[in-house]
Structure to design on (279 residues):
């Protein structure tokens, strides 16, 4: 993540193109995750490390799939039950089924969504993210997690930051090695949002030997490292916020919905999540 100044792409259909050559010689987290959730936007090197990790810890596939279902439940809760109409999705990743704007705009056609990423791979797929309802708006920012104030300034062109916003950071914060720094980045983003805004986080956790081994294998592959954390560290991101019931829990346990496909036993999923409201 190197860019400090975002280039804003608005509307449906953008001419955005990657600034850097896509490196297909090493695994990449967005492509690797896309492979695990059943997407098609990955290379052989991503499939190879994915298959290797499946042998070490098959449960990582469950983490990827159930985390995607959590995204849908959280967005529906915020749109349907809390009346949230603005979403800031940082660390967008590659588009698959039921992206944030699709879920939000099914619930509220006038919902506005700002996606944020600075990865050339994600930027290359921005067109797929920038399709939404005529009543709403979907925007992509080429911006850096390490520059929260710059993100907020650019997002203000689309979102009314005097009204509640849902800040979504899903399976992204593990790229920030230092936990205190990760907490600071989240706090700075939330500081720019008004009372009634929500923070939505999910991430893999160091809650089994298998997950820790999978993380070590991935980080040894040459990819940009991803660090799994303890449950208490995930909970720490919500300090100062009012946690929505049931609190910080394993991903399948957060307000389960019978509409989700049947998945693994909740207790076997090494990923935790939560939703918190800014007082």
């Amino acid at each position: 993540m190197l860019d400090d100044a975002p280039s804003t792409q608005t509307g449906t259909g953008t001419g955005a193109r990657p600034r850097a050559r896509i490196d297909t010689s090493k695994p990449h987290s967005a492509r690797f995750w896309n492979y695990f959730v059943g997407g098609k936007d990955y290379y052989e090197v991503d499939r190879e490390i994915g298959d290797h990790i499946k042998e070490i810890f098959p449960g990582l596939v469950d983490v990827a799939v159930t985390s995607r279902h959590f995204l849908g439940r959280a967005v529906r809760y915020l749109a349907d039950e809390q009346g949230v109409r603005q979403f800031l999705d940082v660390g967008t990743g590659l588009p698959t089924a039921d992206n944030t704007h699709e879920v939000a705009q099914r619930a509220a056609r006038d919902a506005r969504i700002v996606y944020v990423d600075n990865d050339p791979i994600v930027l290359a797929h921005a067109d797929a993210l920038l399709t939404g309802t005529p009543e709403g708006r979907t925007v992509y920012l080429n911006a850096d997690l390490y520059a929260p104030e710059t993100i907020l300034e650019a997002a203000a062109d689309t979102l009314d930051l005097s009204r509640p916003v849902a800040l979504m950071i899903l399976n992204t914060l593990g790229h920030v090695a230092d936990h205190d720094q990760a907490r600071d980045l989240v706090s700075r983003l939330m500081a720019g949002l008004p009372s009634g805004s929500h923070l939505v986080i999910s991430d893999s956790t160091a809650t089994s030997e298998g997950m820790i081994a999978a993380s070590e294998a991935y980080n040894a592959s040459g990819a940009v490292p991803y660090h799994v954390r303890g449950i208490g560290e995930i909970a720490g991101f919500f300090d100062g916020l009012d946690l929505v019931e049931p609190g910080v829990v394993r991903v399948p346990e957060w307000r389960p919905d019978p509409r989700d496909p049947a998945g693994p036993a909740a207790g076997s999923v090494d990923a935790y999540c939560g939703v918190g409201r800014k007082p």
In short: The first strand starts at residue 7 and ends at 9. The chain has a mean pLDDT of 86. Residues 120 and 178 are 24 Å apart (CA to CA).
